[in-house]
Amino acid sequence: MKKFLAMAVAASALAVAAPASAQSWQSINQRQANLDARIDAGVRNGSLTRGEAVRLRGEFNDLARLEAHYRSSYGLSDSERRDLDNRFDRLSSQIRYERNDRQDRDNWQPINQRQRQLDNRIDRGIRNGALNRREAYRLRAEFSEIAALESRYRRNGLSFEERRDLDRRFDRLDARLEASLTDWDRRNRRGRG
Q1: First to last CA, the chain
Q2: 129 in helix, strand or coil?
Q3: Is the confidence at residue 95, as pLDDT, over 70?
Q4: What is the pLDDT of residue 165?
Q5: Which of 63, 65, 53, 62 has the alpha carbon at shortest distance from 86?
Q6: Distance CA 54, CA 56 (A)
Q7: Mean pLDDT value of segment 180-191
Q8: Which residues contact 138 (CB under 8 A, 6 or more apart)?
Q9: Euclidean distance between CA atoms 85 and 91, whole angstroms
Q10: Fewest CB atoms within 10 Å of the CB: 54, 71, 74, 84?
Q11: In this structure, how many other beta carbons lie within 10 angstroms of the beta carbon of residue 176?
């Protein structure tokens, strides 16, 4: 009797747990619809910029094409389903990050803006003699390397860690430029005094 009672309790526990676990798993179509709706909502409420939405939709469309490719060869295998689930999880995380990065977006300068500022400072340095052409070339080449790195990072979505890495690189470049300009200014003042 005790054995039967233990089995009945175990079966009822499984019956209660089964609907909960079944509800947590979403079919690929449900996940696609959910992600698409989250991107739409982010654009509507301003938590996603148009550029972020375009990039996320591109990644979303890539996943849809990959799913179609997988399905074209006799349906989805278990490994293909796992691969799609992992990719959807990553895209979902990206959407969550992008929708909640308002503080970072407000403080973080895009590469184009930083490049304009750097170019202006280098041009001023060349005009006033603080930088020679070789120094300016080196600074711009280093900036180009940072821009290429940012481009690589953006292919998979720019994570917080990647932004921090780019910021550190920009800050080091900015410090080198500032040091060159400051050294020239000091040398010039001593020569006048």
Answers
A1: 104
A2: coil
A3: yes
A4: 87
A5: 63
A6: 6
A7: 66
A8: none
A9: 10
A10: 74
A11: 14
Q: Domain spans of the chain?
A: 26-107, 111-192
Q: What is the pLDDT of residue 12?
A: 42
Q: How far apart are CA 12 and CA 48, in angstroms?
A: 45
φ, ψ of residue 75 in degrees (nearest 5): 85, -175
C-alpha angle 113/107/135, rounded to 5°?
40
pLDDT for position 103: 41
- Output the pLDDT for position 192: 54
Q: Could you tell me which residues come within 8 angstroms of residue 80 by beta carbon, excluding any fewer than 6 positions away?
A: 70
**pLDDT grade for 184, boundaries at 50, 70 and 90:** low
Residue 183 token pair: 């050294």
Say how far residue 47 (Cα) sits from the centre of its chain: 14
The amino acid that residue 151 corresponds to is S
If we measure between CA atoms, which residue out of 144, 136, 157 comes closest to residue 114? 144
Average pLDDT over residues 52-77: 85
**47 falls in which pLDDT band (50, 70, 90)?**
confident
DSSP annotation of 75 reads: S
Which residue shows structure tokens 């821009």? 147
Residue 157 is classified by DSSP as -
| Nearest by Cα to 68 from 79, 78, 76 | 76
Question: CA 95, CA 5: separation in Å to the nearest integer?
Answer: 48
pLDDT reading at 145 higher than 80: yes
Per-residue DSSP letter, 162: H
